[in-house]
Amino acid sequence: MRRTERYPVKGSTSLWQIYKTVSFWKVAKCFIVIEIARYTPFLSMKNWLYRTFLKMEVGEKTSFALKVTPDTMFPERIKVGCDTIIGFNTTILAHEYLVNEYRLGDVIIGDRVMIGANTTILPGVEIGDDAIVSAMTLVNKDVPAGAFVGGNPMRIIYPKENKASGGPDTTK
């Protein structure tokens, strides 16, 4: 189960009421910083932009590939550990605007995690240390440390125990 805070709205949809939940100027600033970071080839510059302007917690030597999109409205709710790779065109969401409510949830990505390209990470999930998330995965629940997961919806392909004791041979 994802850990999200739920905020009901009355009247029109929650997205229509977006600027009652977050400042227009914050969204504008985050959008500009994220668009610059999405296309810069300099990994240390991306991390600096995310830490300085978006207040994200980003560990040392973490790599965000081209076109990664952190949450535009609540990026400060994203924490990424050290030596982690976030693959091309991945989206990391810390919010969901629904018809009758909006939800916010912290996203915590551990150390030495590999996230494949075109993955979407939903709010309120934690990805444990040394986990591997296959490309094009919808991360809709927590990922145990050391597990290999994939799919839409996500499922555990093999847990940490299998990796250590000769799980599928991924070297071929």
From TrEMBL:
Pfam families: Hexapep. It comes from Rummeliibacillus stabekisii. GO terms for molecular function: transferase activity. This is Acetyltransferase. Keywords: Transferase. SUPFAM superfamilies: Trimeric LpxA-like enzymes.
